[in-house]
Amino acid sequence: MKIDHLILLVSSLSMLTQAADKLGFVFELVRHGARAPQKAQKDQFMVPEGMLTASGQRQRYLMGSLNKQRYIDIGLLDDTYNPAQIYIQSTNFFRTIQSSYAELIGIYPPSQKTKLNDGEKQSLKSGKGMPKLKIRNQGKTVDPGQDPMEGFQYIPVFNYQTPDESDDLMTGGCKLIDEADAYLFPRNDTYEPVADYIMPVLRKPIQVAYGLTDDQAWGLSYPQLYDYSDSQLAEDKEGIPRRYSYSAEEWFYMRNTQKWALSLTFPQEYKKIFATKIMRNPLMNMHNRMNEINDGDKTRDSLRYFIYSAHDLQIANILEWLHPVGHDFVDVTYGSSIFFELWYDTDCVNSLRDESCFKVKIIHNGMPLKLSTCLDANWYTRGSYDQICTYTDFRAHTTNFGYSGMPLHEKCAETFTPPSME
Ligand SMILES: *[C@@H]1O[C@H](CO)[C@@H](O)[C@H](O)[C@H]1NC(C)=O
């Protein structure tokens, strides 16, 4: 409750200071909602392993409702679905695709307007309005009056079904980092920097919670611990009573185990490549939108809301790669999000028509992120305490931290060499 109030307060304060500004473009990177565990015990779930649960679906639906208020009700997007304005790409998993649809139902809720009228229903029933297909038991199968999707807006969610180098969301779109991840993820030594302090805290609780023998408990590896913590967190989200009465410290590390399993598997250079690839299309579209606004913003039919529906993996690595000032995270919870919002001053655009009129606000789970490049430039060159990035500084930051070697498709085509064999 307290947290809700705080978020409301913070967002209404920022609305006040942004009153003269207008929102031009949004990039949303978001994790799927709550799901069943990937491995370990899953007997308590009504969906198969790794699948989105009903509460997970609800999480993203509610997020969509909030995004409708934030982005449609203020006029960034049209009230009714305009396919030119929104692009949503998901990874090729049922939980991320279903999450995308759930969020879209929140953004464009079912309406009376799109319901079929009686004449249209009759035309479908009689077969006249149907595509030229043979349908068995047509009278029974086709009953437009009973369509549970009636009133819903159909919106495509794009995803690559097989690994493809233009798929920037999945590691499979970059052979080099995919191989590095496959090699590093299952290895004990990948987690050496944290296993020494996390394992001793969690070994006993996990043993009791999951009924492990002493041998199993002593033989527990970090990748196994991660599986148990994944299962325990999934159960917790569904309101299933905890298997053990964890202390605050134990629960902290139960959550924190995830962060290292996601980020230590992408050492410095690989994180750069992965993050640069994830960000390139959204950033290019943000830039195009800025040019379009400076050019007089002549059409409503252009892309202004770009959504990547992904996993904890992408969020954790983008967060670490951004190096936000004074901002840490314990884990990447279900439905976690990072928003990159492009704002502009309309008076400035009308007179100057250039990049200096634009700012970028970055928000992680409702918390504003600060970037060193922006803070430094605001203070040292403009004498301002402003914590929001100018568009130019934001670009400088992502370029400085980004991968800048050979073209990405060439880099990604390289073969991974394990460190010990170099
Ligand atoms: C990983 O660590 C566990 C527990 O210490 C051990 O049993 C296992 O053999 C290790 N695996 C490798 C490949 O070293």
Provide a brief overview of the structure:
The protein is an alpha/beta fold. The protein is built from 16 helices and seven strands.
Largest sheet: 7 strands, mixed
CATH topology type of the largest domain: Rossmann fold
SSE string, helices as H and strands as E: HEHEHHHHHHHHHEHEHEEHEHH
Output the number of helix runs: 16
Kindly report the name of the CATH homologous superfamily of the largest domain.
Answer: Phosphoglycerate mutase-like
Unreliable spans? 15-19
The share of residues in helices is 40-55%
Kindly report how far apart the N and C termini lie.
53 Å
How many strands appear in the DSSP assignment? 7
Report mean pLDDT, rounded to a whole number. Answer: 91
Beta-strand percentage range: 5-15%
What oligomeric assembly is this protein in? Answer: single chain
Structural class: alpha/beta
Number of domains: 3
